[in-house]
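[INFO] parsing input record for Flavodoxin
[DEBUG] input buffer:
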Amino acid sequence: MTSTSTLTALALTCSLKPSPEPSSSDKIATQVLDELRGHGVTGELVRVVDFDVRPGVQTDMGNGDQWPQLRQRVLAADILVLATPTWVGHPSSVAQRVMERLDAELSETDDQGRPSMYGKVAVVAVVGNEDGAHKIIADCFQALNDVGFTIPASGGTYWNSEAMNPKDYIELDSTPDAVASTNKKLAANAAHLARLLKQDQYPPAQ
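[DEBUG] output buffer:
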């Protein structure tokens, strides 16, 4: 740890399984939060499907929409961990909805005209018993960057099962060395970048 300044992280896991059903997305998100903790980052994990997040591109869609509760947690965090399973080669529909709802943040600005997510870091974690992680990470990176998040170097981590031999991440007896190493690097870079941005925010909008 290179600084004692406090940072916070929020992991939004986008499993299709409601709690308390075991989730591979929860598992990899928890591992990332554990690594972040070693860099002075406190974190919490929320399974999005446990909330009634309505479709739409406003901060509050009304009629019992529970996205505003999650939005407040995103706004309070320095680092967002978006964790999603792979479904037919794509992020889950839950992850897609999160990114759609975050689109509203382009219209939410501070007193200097910066979108509300400026100065926040986002990383992506993907698990699946099929291929597709690289494309999912790329798609999520683009969406998150579009709405104002900053992506650190090595900001994605993933695990895919062997082709044509499906298995879930939660079924593994131990974390593969490559995944553990990537989680560690992701956490170090995310914490470093978040700390820099907290100390020196982006310039005001022109």
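[INFO] The chain has one domain: 7-199.
[INFO] shutting down worker
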